[in-house]
């Protein structure tokens, strides 16, 4: 169901914003806009030099600024380990025969 433009606000519709969760980063008191799995995002958050509080649900709640930092690091790592196509790394081989 699509809501009218007047009613629709991104902050109001996000699930974590409705629950009133705060950012899990130590020293941050902003409202969380994302709840991320601790298993998949733990390394990205720690390597972005962000310290977070553990919780029993194994979730990391991030506000907009901290999510942007962690996601920037994640994208840089994904670019480094991106799979290359089959033909991108191959060299062209001449198939013509030399009859000399």
What tags apply to this protein structure?
single chain; about 100 residues; mainly alpha; about 10% strand
| Overall shape | extended
The number of helical elements comes to: 4
CA radius of gyration: 22 Å
Low-pLDDT stretches are none
Structural class: mainly alpha
Task: Please report which band the strand proportion falls in: under 5%, 5-15%, 15-25%, 25-35%, 35-45% or over 45%.
Answer: 5-15%
Number of strands: 2
Mean pLDDT, rounded to whole units? Answer: 78
How are strands sequenced across the largest beta sheet? 1-2
Distance between the termini: 73 Å
Order of helices and strands: HHEHEH
Main sheet summary: 2 strands, antiparallel
Overall helicity: 25-40%
Please, could you describe this protein's structure?
It is a single chain. Helix 3 crosses helix 4 (64-80). The chain has helices at 10-13, 15-19, 38-47, 64-80; strands spanning 34-37, 59-62. The chain is mainly α and 100 residues long. The radius of gyration is 22 Å and the shape is extended. It has four helices and two strands; from the N terminus they run ααβαβα. Helix content is 36%, strand content 8%. A two-stranded antiparallel ribbon has the order 1-2.
What can be said about this structure in brief?
The chain has four helices and two strands.
Summarize the SSE layout with pairings.
Layout: H1 10-13, H2 15-19, E1 34-37, H3 38-47, E2 59-62, H4 64-80
Antiparallel strand pairs: 1-2
């Amino acid at each position: 169901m699509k809501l009218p433009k007047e009613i629709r606000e991104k902050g109001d519709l996000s699930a974590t914003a409705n629950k009133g969760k705060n950012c899990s980063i130590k020293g941050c008191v902003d409202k969380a806009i994302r709840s991320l799995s601790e298993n998949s995002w733990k390394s990205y958050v720690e390597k972005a030099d962000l310290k977070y509080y553990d919780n029993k649900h194994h979730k990391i709640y991030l506000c907009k600024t901290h999510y942007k930092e962690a996601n920037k690091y994640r994208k840089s790592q994904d670019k480094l380990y991106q799979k290359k196509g089959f033909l991108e790394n191959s060299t062209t081989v001449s198939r013509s025969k030399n009859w000399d």
